[in-house]
Amino acid sequence: MNDTEILIENHDLTENMGTASIPQKDVTLELIRHALQGTDSIHGWKINVKETESIELFFIKKSLDMNRRKNVTHYMVTVFKDFEKDGILWRGSSSANIAPSMNQDEVSEIIQDLALAASFVKNKHYDLNKPETDLPDKADSAFEKGDLSEWIPKLVESLFKGDIYSEGCLNSSEIFVNRSKNHIINSEGIDVVFDDYSGLIEIVAEWDGVKESVELFRIFKFSDMCPEKIEDEVRQLLNECKEKAIAIPAPAMKNINVLLSGEAVGQLLDFYVGQSNAQMVYEGISTIKIGENIQGDSVDGDWISLTLEPTLKNSSSSSPYDTDGVTLKRTMIFDKGVLQTYHGSQRYSSYLDIEPTGIIKNASFAPGKFSEEVFRSEPYVELISFSAFDMDPITGDFGGEVRLARTFDGTKTTALTGASVSLNLKECHKNMYLSKEIKQDDSYQGPRSILFKNASIAGVEV
């Protein structure tokens, strides 16, 4: 597909935006500042400004059905109010969006309403974030260069490059690309500006099976040009459609090695991110202590080592600051199962009396000792995709209905569908093996697959 086949419509912006930028003098921001300074009943405030330039395309098969381009700016204002009750100092907060079309009286009225609402919120007192001297890391992206529309033909070409089969195709797809400039200001002197980039592709693939047509859906996120990865996602989904078309109902299987792959791997390991979160610890949802081993003292499989990465390459969640303006730094959370530190927002970190890490959204897990070739050297069932994968961040229960699986009996491989699995991570992570191969799915980087030995799956009732 060449450049002339993609026509981007412009909505609410000039014909050539260039790099998104907050104006030298932001009128709405000045109105908000003036209203905050004129409100004596509040004891702190925060303003989050996000200006986003976006391009969206919608395809039916390979034909462009609709496209649009827009530029929007959101102003989120949060006010804080302190009050004492029963000898304890509390801090209430309330937030609202300010529309750019509002005048000074309208903005002032909203600020007054927020101040009143904040007085009814009873949170333990905490300090707002203050300016830091450390400079954050920056995530580079090709989308920061030139006009955003220049990248669209390349993305479209990558999307349809793997759509080459006669029996199957991309039934529909959508592309979203965003370039944003963020401005965070608070009453303690925080004043930071940074860019972020995000892309999202939704694809629906179909395959004409012998008995029935198969349709599968996937969402793929990114923040940089990654044509090979986009092509791979499309081919992989089409191949899964092909396998699903010939899959047979899964029988019940006991005491078999269960290999988990696909998107569920990152969703499963997110349990460890949640268990070490300062809010979950403060609220008593997680009881792990710093210095404890979350997997116990003896492990037959692989240890969990987790590092939070503010600026993971090609992640749409990368950011040098969180929404409170905390400077984000690379932070090790688990080292061979042992909790090194909690992580979380300014508020909950202060409740635990720890240095705030801020909210870091990228998780990087260390790989295991063995390759997938070793995992597949004896009979197994591999769970590839789920209708819905459920992971309880509190109990550790996980599982769901399996849309597509493969089983290997030592001689041949068979595609299965309709199985279901239900396990508990707290009970089986002593005997959990992480693959040596790693992958990255947006904000997740880590093992490509996980092996649970001597597990069971439920089959299709006939």
Compose a concise summary of this entry.
With 462 residues, this protein is α+β, with helices and mostly antiparallel strands. The chain has helices spanning 27-37, 104-118, 152-161, 227-246, 264-275, 278-282, 346-351, 372-375, 425-428, and strands spanning 44-60, 63-85, 88-98, 123-124, 168-186, 191-208, 213-222, 248-249, 253-261, 306-308, 331-335, 338-339, 363-365, 380-386, 390-391, 397-408, 413-417, 420-424, 432-434, 438-441, 444-447, 449-457.
Overview of this structure, please?
This protein is an alpha+beta fold and 462 residues long. It has two domains: 3-230, PmbA/TldD superfamily (PmbA/TldD fold, 2-Layer Sandwich), CATH 3.30.2290.10; 247-462, no CATH class. The protein has nine helices and 22 strands. Strand 20 (438-441) and strand 21 (444-447) form a beta hairpin. Helix 1 (27-37) packs across helix 2. It is globular and about 75 Å long.
How many extended strands?
22
Low-pLDDT parts are: 1-21
Span of the ends, CA to CA: 48 Å
Number of helices: 9
Radius of gyration: 25 Å
CATH class of the largest domain: Alpha Beta
Whole-number total of structural domains:
2
Write out the CATH superfamily name of the largest domain.
PmbA/TldD superfamily
Helix content: 10-25%
Instruction: Please give the CATH architecture of the largest domain.
Output: 2-Layer Sandwich
Main β-sheet description = 9 strands, mixed
Note the overall shape.
Answer: globular
CATH topology-level name of the largest domain: PmbA/TldD fold
Mean pLDDT: 92
Strand content: 35-45%
Class per helix and strand makeup:
alpha+beta
